Amino acid sequence: MWNNLQYVLLYSWVKLHALLPMKVLYLLSDILYIVIYKIVRYRVKVVHRNIEASFPDKSAEERLRLERAFYHHFSDYIVETIKLAHISLKELQQRAFLKNPELVDQLMEKGHTCFVLLMGHHGNWEWFSGSTSRFKDSRMYQIYRPLSNKAFDRLFIHLRTQFGSFGIKKQDTVREVIQLKKDKTPCVVIFIADQTPSKNNLHYWTTFLNQDTSILTGPERLARKLDLPVIFLDTKQVKRGYYTMDMHLITENPKETPENWITEQYARLMEKCILKDPSGWLWTHKRWKYKQPEQTI
């Protein structure tokens, strides 16, 4: 009962703000920036530490400018996500423009039906993953980790699936994707793969943004198991409120690649994407909370 009431109140608040034009929402974002960064100081220590370790060659002034630019983008991301509650599919696809959807169509013509798409918390990932009609004949599925707050979890599920895309809980990924492959369901399965693996899944380490970093290997293992083509989604902010997405084929035949090769390719492409526009990445995550075990000779 309380969860339902909490959801109704939360959704009503979001819907009310989503009715506002984007220009007004960005004015609210400017105010939100002051609240989040200057007053609440939301995860400022984490962001400062992450940026300092990732860019040791930048001056303190340069890192501070990047930090401020990130919090401006983070505030924009919040109001842009709220806008999902009242935006047309046409406007959404104009603001988050996919440059080459034909890549999936071309792979389907070769006989593939299911694809793994790797992306990161860069730009506005919510605006891309919420629309299944980006591809001519394929559904979109996003792997997600349920939020502990039931009302917020329900809200995000609604916002992400209102235009016809689907969500798959992280713990159900293997079973669900195997079934999609078995049923030959045309689909693109999205992994936001720049998250920190759990402590029991620190299987692959590489250098990422100047630091020893463990990268998720689950998407590669699934792709190799089912022989699913792997695509990377490169994101770029064109101007405030407008993004472009460009798909790059990592491999059409994952079973033919060496172990961890796909994961390493993703790390390099994701790093390149971030370095082009560092302020567009989500620096608030504690991505380097685990240290690589010392190697024994």
Low-confidence spans: none
Strand count, sense and barrel status of the largest sheet are: 7 strands, mixed
Helix content estimate: 40-55%
Number of domains: 1
**What is the arithmetic mean of pLDDT?**
93
Oligomeric form: single chain
What do these coordinates show?
This protein has helices at residues 2-18, 22-40, 44-54, 60-83, 89-95, 102-109, 125-129, 150-161, 173-182, 218-226, 261-276; strands spanning 96-98, 114-119, 139-144, 166-169, 187-192, 205-208, 211-214, 230-239, 242-251. The protein has 11 helices and 9 strands. The mean pLDDT is 93. Helix 2 (22-40) packs across helix 4 (60-83) and helix 3 (44-54) packs across helix 4. The chain has one domain (2-280). It starts with a helix and ends in a 21-residue tail after the last helix. Strands 1-9-8-2-5-3-4 form a 7-stranded mixed sheet, with helices on both faces. It has a two-stranded antiparallel sheet with strand order 6-7. With 297 residues, the chain is α/β, with parallel strands linked by helices. It is globular and about 50 Å long.
Please outline the helices and strands.
Elements: H1 2-18, H2 22-40, H3 44-54, H4 60-83, H5 89-95, E1 96-98, H6 102-109, E2 114-119, H7 125-129, E3 139-144, H8 150-161, E4 166-169, H9 173-182, E5 187-192, E6 205-208, E7 211-214, H10 218-226, E8 230-239, E9 242-251, H11 261-276
Parallel strand pairs: 1-9, 2-5, 2-8, 3-4, 3-5
Antiparallel strand pairs: 6-7, 8-9
Helix pairs in contact: 1-8, 2-4, 3-4
